[in-house]
Design the sequence.
């Protein structure tokens, strides 16, 4: 049994979930430029709904991007603050991995490639595989001009906004937005296996910063 808070604010959608034993309490709503103003009240409302307090949390999970500069900084800072204050550990996943987790539930494949939107001619790519309910990923940061379909497994499925850049791939989940409830699933697995990370290891990944992407390899 575990109580876990999960946060992803890498897009205009603010996605927050609390897992309490086998129950899930979620907020997932498009609120552009309001994340900073509303995130703490959203968390407070979900804690009240779940009848939990910060002191009863066992872990905090966060989607680290790539995505909105402000949104990612906010999510990581809030997660770190809660983890430090409660002396607990956390989990971080790329927000691209959250898309692959959702796609894995919809498509019969064990390998997924999530592609970010283009920024300054570059894209971030997360190539993910699934085993025993957990996800493992390899990350790339490349020029869009260097993308080649043959560089990925023949049976993999693609997801993410960046798919629209490449006519040779099909997005299996058009319009998908990272959802915090998928963070909960992986966080539970890793909590049970004592595979959580220290607060200072939660690092944001910005759309325009290759160095931050390299840190999560």
Sequence:
């Amino acid at each position: 049994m575990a109580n876990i808070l999960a946060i992803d604010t890498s897009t205009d959608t603010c996605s927050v979930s609390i897992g309490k034993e086998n129950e899930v309490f979620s907020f997932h709503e498009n609120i552009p430029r309001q994340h900073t103003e509303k995130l703490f009240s959203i968390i407070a409302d979900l804690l009240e709904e779940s009848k939990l307090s910060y002191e009863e949390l066992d872990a905090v999970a966060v989607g680290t991007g790539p995505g909105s500069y402000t949104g990612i900084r906010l999510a990581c800072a809030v997660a770190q603050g809660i983890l430090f204050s409660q002396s607990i550990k956390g989990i971080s996943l790329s927000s691209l991995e959250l898309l692959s987790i959702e796609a894995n539930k919809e498509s019969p494949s064990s390998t997924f490639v999530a592609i970010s939107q283009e920024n300054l001619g570059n894209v971030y790519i997360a190539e993910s595989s699934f085993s025993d309910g957990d996800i493992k990923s390899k990350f790339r940061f490349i020029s869009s001009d260097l993308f080649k379909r043959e560089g990925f497994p023949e049976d993999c499925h693609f997801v993410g906004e960046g798919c629209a850049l490449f006519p040779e791939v099909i997005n299996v989940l058009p319009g998908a937005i990272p959802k915090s409830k998928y963070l909960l699933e992986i966080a539970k697995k890793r909590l049970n296996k004592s595979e959580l990370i220290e607060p200072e290891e939660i690092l944001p990944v910005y759309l325009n910063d290759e160095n931050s992407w390299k840190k999560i390899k």
